[in-house]
Amino acid sequence: MEKLLIRDLTKTFPAGRSSDRITVLDHISFTIRENEFVSLVGASGCGKSTLLSIIAGLQTHDDGDLKVDGSDILGPGADRGVVFQSYTLLPWLTARKNVEFALQATGYPAADIGDLAMTQLKLVGLEGFAERYPAQLSGGMKQRVAIARALSYKPKLLLMDEPFGALDALTRVQMQELLTSVWERERLTVIFVTHDVEEAVFLSDRIFVMASNPGRVKTVYDVPLPRPRTPDTHRLPEFVELQADVLGSIRSEMRDR
Ligand SMILES: Nc1ncnc2c1ncn2[C@@H]1O[C@H](COP(=O)(O)OP(=O)(O)OP(=O)(O)O)[C@@H](O)[C@H]1O
After folding, report:
1. Residue 85 predicted with pLDDT over 90
2. Which positions fall inside the ABC transporter domain (predicted)?
3. Ligand 1 in reach of 45 Cβ (< 6 A)
4. Ligand 1 close to Cβ of residue 180 (< 6 A)
């Protein structure tokens, strides 16, 4: 079933002081199926973050249609969970209270909130850290709380913008493995922005390579790798080949600019 439909999406920004406008996203059209994991990759400035924030309802668009489960996106909503690169936890609340706060804000019954928050923290392996404040957690742990929080209210669509970009290499790989196992268990629909092609191949069902000036989807790759994905997945010849193909596609687009 179709989860997200985007048709002829166009976004412009004012170009400096003149009345001209720069087209950042140009007639983008695609659909994402329920339970699909899709990554957006492409050169810096091709419009990945802009596209994600329009889907999140955090930015307006000029033209085109965006629908989640057949309903127009008109602004932010609890049907879409968002995880960004920077940890957006509330520093004055514990890990558990950060998750509970999101559940309260999205209207969960008060009696269920405590249990639900702990269940989500357990899912990301943080049940022992529930009473810690963000300042007492490592970067990877903070990002796990942010993922637990985004998953807690069961969004139809999870939107992730470079969520592991600020982490060290080992923590990043651990977070990829955690995310893929959570995704395999919860059957989420995810749109994931990353600069890291290896990360995109490891996590995704499909990879959209975007081109710039104006931003558009240039090539769509299917990722025919078996699941569950494990550390050994990286060594499969198909993995290595696909990674090279996607990188080549981004590079050729940069050369053509
Ligand atoms: N508020 C804004 N006003 C004007 N131009 C903007 C604004 N936000 C983004 N842009 C421009 O839109 C283009 C796309 O930006 P965006 O951040 O979406 O790209 P990106 O692919 O996510 O880049 P990166 O990979 O570097 O994060 C860039 O050229 C950027 O300069």
Report:
1. no
2. 4-237
3. yes
4. no
What is the distance in A from the centroid of ligand 1 to the CA of 45?
A: 5
Cβ–Cβ < 8 Å for 209, 246: yes
Nearest to 163 by CA among 220, 246, 55, 171: 171
Nearest-CA residue for ligand 1 atom 4 is 13
- The Å distance, Cα 51 to ligand 1 centre, comes to 9
pLDDT in tens, 126-170: 999 999 999 999 888 998 899 889 888 888 899 999 988 888 888
Helices (H) and strands (E) in the chain, counts: 7, 10
Q: What pTM, to 2 d.p., does this model score? A: 0.92
19 lines ligand 1 (CB under 6 A): no
Between strands 157-161 and 190-193, the pairing is: parallel
* Ligand 1 and 209: CB distance under 6 A: no
pLDDT at 87: 65
